[in-house]
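Same chain as my last thread, 288 residues:
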Amino acid sequence: RHFFELHSAPSIAGRSRQRMGICQSAIKALAKPQPQDEDEAQQGQRPPPGGQGEVVASPPLGSGRKPVSYASAAGSGGGGHQPGNAGPWGPPAAAAPHASYPSPQQHGQSGLSRAVFFPDSAMPCRKYAAGRECRRHNCEYAHTRTSLMELLDELRKARSTLDICVFTITCNEIATGIKEAINRGVTVRIITDDDQMESQGSDVEGLVKAGAQTRHDNNNRSHMHHKFAVVDRATLLSGSFNWTRSAVLTNRENIIITTDPTLINSFAQEFNKMWQLYSGNVVRTSHV
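reply #2:
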């Protein structure tokens, strides 16, 4: 008996101290402050999937849907998730943490913008475009507003300057609109591709003769492939649209028409930079 008590006492005491240590650890854990929100809980952790600081929302279990990035959805336009609207799989309780929804000003959309698309069904009827009545019973030209007419209307608004930077100009209707601007006293500057200005049907020679200041890139290894114009430093026309008849009637093309000052300033600076760069490549009628 004395032997049992002598040898069992230390082991019993050790187990007691072990149990007390476990209890103390549990008490400390319960007393430890818990994270107040999800942001605090994520401190020191890697960013969630989908990008640096980008939140990816998880769909309900069993829905079979893939996670959706709120940051990318917010920038998708139209159908993207917005606070208070129905989310990708139902109305959210609140905006996702870290998700930001830029204002139109942050996107540089303080100006008015619209898009026009090609091809048109037909070239515009000249009388209709001029606001006169067309009495031809079988007129094959368009008697409704077309995308080309939208472009021509913007060219007609020019009162002081018209800076044109396009790959090629072969559409006679557009060339006529540019000449009309010159006749109104508008200063017209054109930057074009050196190969295309010599191609069949090019209107560059006629525009130079009419008074348009014109320069080219003089580069056999690459093309001056821009397609934009700045009207009175107040309106920007830019898109995939080449100023050709085939682009009007055949190709899938687009033009963005905007009065956004940030975009206008960027394109105007690019034009002026190229205008200086090509200062030695002035187009004269004898060169075309």
